[in-house]
């Protein structure tokens, strides 16, 4: 181990010490993340594990130390508020395990994939598609890790039908905060299984997830429909998510285009289409987009199905656009859009900040929420994407740690801002105003990817029953509160 490390690291078992890196360059990256807005001290060292056993050994050392030190797994560092930091402790560079053996295995006969917690979804998708299979539910962006996503929930446009990604998990290997390696499932150590899913890295490090698969149609018809009226958008979305499997679309999302925001996606729209849409946008202060998709093998059947569904929707006549793409192209669409956005930005990428706010808003208050939020945002004039789409609560497992509003249908509202070093604080202030609005108006929204700093806020977030259960699980599986300290749940 390199010189200059804290004294507590001197007592670490030699086989682990050789895998700890503490020079400035090694640790600096672990004090930054996708958000780019939180400054924290770097970890004292970074573990580059060669196997899950190394992680278990590290956590056992942390427990035995005179002054136990904190440990945080870092997936792909795509948190926005420092949730994977371990200031003064040890960060686990999960990416190291990606180079170790074959850690994505598909069983086509039993319809599941076993994927290491460190794996990126893009690699999991490529492997499952080789077997003609895919998962039921997907996040929008595939450059996230299995462990980092399942520690939250994993939401996207298939949740209304199949639940978040955590709902498709069959089994997990977890290294607890005591350094024990435990295999868990709904039948085996179910408390740990349910606790870890959506558990914000608090109970253990996920080193393997078994996730159910299904045969995948080769093609996707991908549609974008424009609305000038919020209520028409949401009533169409709610109608679509009420349809049974196979009858409706396989994917339903939506976007709010604020302040005459222009469409700029050459991968989807032709130049003429974009011009026509942007003329419409110029007339209205806010426009709305319904994004839907059908997965299919036979063109004639999909034509009929889409035609029938479109007749029942109230988008602006003439403003429905569609494209047939491969399954892979569809699931990887956000990466393609991101790359286009980055290449057309004049700002140095290292100076970009992402002060995001993700909320689950009950259906009964979505109209009030929209009015309040649009008013606040008009004064700020932010840049970025606002996603808005409904989900069915009965597709979420109440026993898992993840928290959703207490209403049968709720909306995922995602303010995905892009800002500069100079103006991210204005956007964060706008986010806080939106939260304040919800609080004052009694909109019982729940934050997704929450980043509270006080225990009182976390208790309110979880509610009495879940909080009590989560505390008991923490006491059992990470009694010294060593794991993922910068979630600030048990460490403030
Ligand atoms: P990290 O940021 O590295 O870690 C997140 C937390 O999980 C930390 O507390 C960390 O300690 C813990 N952790 C990491 N690995 C493990 C592990 N193996 N076991 C236990 N705990 C672990 N979310 C969605 O639901 N749907 C989306 O469509 C979506 N799209 C996104 C697009 C972008 C561009 C970005 C930046 C984020 C997006 N997110 C989305 C949010 C994303 O799911 C979370 O930020 C997630 O935590 C990021 O995964 P990561 O691998 O980078 O985790």
UniProtKB/TrEMBL annotation:
<dbReference type="Pfam" id="PF09265">
    <property type="entry name" value="Cytokin-bind"/>
</dbReference>
<dbReference type="GO" id="GO:0009690">
    <property type="term" value="P:cytokinin metabolic process"/>
</dbReference>
<keyword id="KW-0560">Oxidoreductase</keyword>
<dbReference type="InterPro" id="IPR016166">
    <property type="entry name" value="FAD-bd_PCMH"/>
</dbReference>
<dbReference type="Pfam" id="PF01565">
    <property type="entry name" value="FAD_binding_4"/>
</dbReference>
<dbReference type="InterPro" id="IPR015345">
    <property type="entry name" value="Cytokinin_DH_FAD/cytokin-bd"/>
</dbReference>
<feature type="domain" description="FAD-binding PCMH-type">
    <location>
        <begin position="39"/>
        <end position="216"/>
    </location>
</feature>
<dbReference type="InterPro" id="IPR050432">
    <property type="entry name" value="FAD-linked_Oxidoreductases_BP"/>
</dbReference>
<dbReference type="GO" id="GO:0019139">
    <property type="term" value="F:cytokinin dehydrogenase activity"/>
</dbReference>
<dbReference type="GO" id="GO:0071949">
    <property type="term" value="F:FAD binding"/>
</dbReference>
<dbReference type="InterPro" id="IPR006094">
    <property type="entry name" value="Oxid_FAD_bind_N"/>
</dbReference>
<comment type="similarity">
    <text>Belongs to the oxygen-dependent FAD-linked oxidoreductase family.</text>
</comment>
<protein>
    <recommendedName>
        <fullName>cytokinin dehydrogenase</fullName>
        <ecNumber>1.5.99.12</ecNumber>
    </recommendedName>
</protein>
């Amino acid at each position: 181990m390199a010189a200059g490390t804290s004294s507590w690291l001197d007592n670490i078992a030699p086989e682990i010490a050789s895998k700890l890196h503490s020079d400035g360059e090694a640790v600096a990256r672990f004090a930054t993340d996708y958000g780019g807005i939180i400054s924290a001290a770097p970890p004292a060292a970074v573990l580059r594990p060669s196997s899950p056993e190394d992680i278990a050994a590290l956590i056992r050392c942390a427990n035995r130390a005179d002054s136990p030190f904190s440990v945080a797994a870092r997936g792909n560092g795509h948190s926005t508020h420092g949730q994977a930091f371990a200031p003064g402790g040890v960060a686990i560079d999960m990416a190291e395990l990606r180079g170790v053996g074959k850690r994505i295995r598909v069983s086509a006969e039993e319809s599941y994939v076993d994927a290491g917690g460190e794996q990126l979804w893009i690699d999991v998708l490529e492997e499952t598609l080789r077997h003609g299979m895919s998962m039921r539910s997907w996040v929008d962006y595939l450059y996230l890790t299995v462990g980092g996503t399942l520690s939250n929930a994993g939401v996207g446009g298939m949740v209304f039908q199949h639940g978040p990604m955590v709902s498709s998990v069959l089994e997990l290997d977890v290294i607890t905060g005591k350094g024990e390696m435990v295999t868990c499932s709904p039948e085996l150590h179910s408390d740990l299984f349910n606790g870890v899913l959506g558990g914000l890295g608090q109970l253990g490090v996920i080193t393997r997830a078994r996730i159910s698969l299904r045969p995948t149609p080769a093609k996707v018809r991908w549609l974008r429909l424009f609305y000038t009226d919020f209520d028409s958008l949401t009533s169409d979305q709610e109608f679509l998510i009420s349809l049974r499997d196979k009858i409706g679309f396989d994917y339903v999302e939506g976007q709010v285009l604020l302040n005459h925001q222009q469409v700029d996606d050459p991968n989807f729209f032709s130049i003429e289409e974009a011009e026509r849409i942007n003329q419409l946008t110029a007339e209205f202060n806010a426009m709305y987009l319904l994004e839907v998709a059908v997965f299919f093998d036979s063109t004639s059947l999909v034509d009929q199905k889409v035609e029938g569904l479109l007749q029942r929707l109230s988008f602006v006549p003439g403003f429905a656009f569609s494209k047939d793409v491969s399954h892979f192209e569809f699931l990887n669409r956000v990466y393609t859009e991101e790359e286009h956005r980055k290449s057309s930005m004049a700002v140095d990428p290292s100076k970009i900040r992402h002060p995001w706010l993700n909320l689950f808003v009950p259906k009964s208050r979505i109209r009030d929420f929209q009015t309040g939020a649009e008013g606040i945002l008009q004064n700020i004039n932010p840049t970025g994407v606002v996603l808005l789409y409904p989900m069915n609560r009965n597709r979420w497992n109440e026993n898992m740690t993840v928290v959703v509003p207490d209403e049968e249908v709720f909306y995922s509202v995602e303010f995905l801002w892009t800002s500069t070093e100079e103006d991210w604080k204005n956007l964060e202030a706008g986010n806080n105003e939106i939260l304040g609005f919800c609080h004052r108006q009694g909109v019982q929204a729940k934050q997704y990817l929450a980043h509270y700093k006080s225990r009182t806020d976390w208790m309110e977030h979880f509610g009495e029953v879940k909080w009590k259960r989560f505390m008991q699980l923490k006491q059992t599986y990470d009694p010294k509160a060593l794991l993922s300290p910068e979630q600030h749940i048990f460490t403030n």
